[in-house]
Amino acid sequence: MSLNRCSDVDSPFPRKRGLVARLRLRLEDCAEENLLDPREIEFRELAEAYLLLDERMAKLIAISDKYQGDLREATKRMQHMARTDPLTNLSNRRDMLECLDREVERFVRYEKDFSIIMFDIDDFKSVNDSYGHDAGDRVLKGLALVFLETLRRADVCARWGGEEFLVLCPETTSESARIVGEKCLMAVSAMRIATEAGPIGITLSGGVAAMQKGFDQDDLIKLADAKLYAAKAAGKKRIID
Amino acid sequence: MKTIEATSSSPCIQFGEAELFIKGESYPENSFVFYAPVFEWLTAELEAAPRFRLTLDVSYMNSSSTKCVLDILDLLSEAARCGCDARVTWLYEAENERSLDLAEEFKEDIDIPFEIVPVKAEPNEP
User: Fold this and answer.
1) How far apart are CA A110 and CA A105, in angstroms?
2) Using an 8 Å Cβ cutoff, are A239 and A207 in contact?
3) Which of A48, B24, B106, B114 could form a disulfide with B88 if both were Cys (CB 3.0 to 4.6 A apart)?
4) ipTM of the complex
């Protein structure tokens, strides 16, 4: 909507459009006359003031709508940014913590099962050291895509730390979550990332933890971390629940 | 019942027998054009209506939509002065304080029964 020309802006008083049209006509009619009647002068002043008010109000509402729209868009963008990991476009740690909070609430109130999987890329440091950080970033982005393609729609996947990813599986037991995790491991094993030295592959390790009575968020994450550690200790490339 | 379906920037509007229901977010590109059919329908409906119920469940509205809602409330007030039993119910999510503030502003402006009802996000809760 153009804010420069008043005629582009709709009257904020649509129910008074008839009145506005009549006032305009009367003002045009008497524009050339020599006004001597004080009542007529007063009417003319009032009519002009009303028409100006109508016009200004229309403009102010249009400006206000525009600023509100801009503010709304900016707020949405900031909300998205505050919850998103910029490299992978996955949820970030903050978003995951909020999702976990809600899921823990649901578990306490409705006893809805849920599980989490903590993944870590095996030997990621050697990818960075051997092929450079750009290749490392490509691995992280490629892995994010694999997660998005492999996980179910209701699952939430976040970049938890450097090369750590946390997946929240609502209404899922630990056995089912392990199956989901194994699918991810399989899909990742087929992924190839281009580097200057040619395509490379990576492997993942994962630890599954199911929510239990008496657990809080930290207990659950600690358990998944411990399972991940066990998977690493057992030779990597595996998932343990 | 006649319905205008909601879009990402305009609310769902349902015109029933002696009732009007507006639900959603309201920031259409041109609010005065969007609400024009509502005015038209409402003006005709109120001509001889002995009673009328307006229910608003709008979580966000821009300035021009606010103006349109004020005009709708004016129409109801006028009808009430002519003997119509016109009432308004404003539903809002309990956490949405902005919506409550807006409702209170509207309520101050008119002299017909105006009920402000908080709605819980999880209606199944005991």
Assistant:
1) 8
2) yes
3) B114
4) 0.79
A114: distance to nearest CA of chain B, Å? 20
Helix (H, G, I), strand (E, B) or coil at B23: strand
**Pick from B32, B36, B63: CB nearest A64:** B63
Q: Which structural domain, as residue segments, surrounds residue A27?
A: 6-81
Which DSSP symbol is given to A7? Answer: G
At which residue do the structure tokens 């802006």 appear? Answer: A9
CA distance A113 to chain B (A): 19
CATH at B28: 3.30.750
Pairing of the two strands A204-210 and A239-240? parallel
pLDDT in tens, B13-45: 999 889 999 999 999 988 989 999 999 999 999
* Separation of CA A25 from chain center: 53
Q: What number of other Cβ atoms are within 10 A of residue A164's Cβ?
A: 16
Q: Alpha helix locations (H) across A132-216? A: 133-150, 174-189
Domain end among A20, A47, A81: A81
**Both A75 and A116 in a single domain?**
no
pLDDT in tens, A158-201: 999 999 999 999 999 999 999 999 999 999 999 999 988 899 99
Residue B39 contacts A, CB cutoff 8 Å: yes
Domain total of chain A: 2
Same domain, A50 and A126: no
The pair of structure tokens assigned to A194 is 């281009």
Per-residue CA distances from B122 to A103, A109, A235, B55, B95 (Å): 14, 12, 46, 20, 12
A142 and B CB contact within 8 Å: no
Distance from CA of B11 to the nearest CA of A (A): 16
A105 is catalytic: no
The token duo for A144 is 């994010």
Query: pLDDT band at B90, cuts 50/70/90?
Result: very high
Q: Would the pTM count as exceeding 0.90?
A: no
Confirm or reject contact between B62 and chain A (CB < 8 A): yes
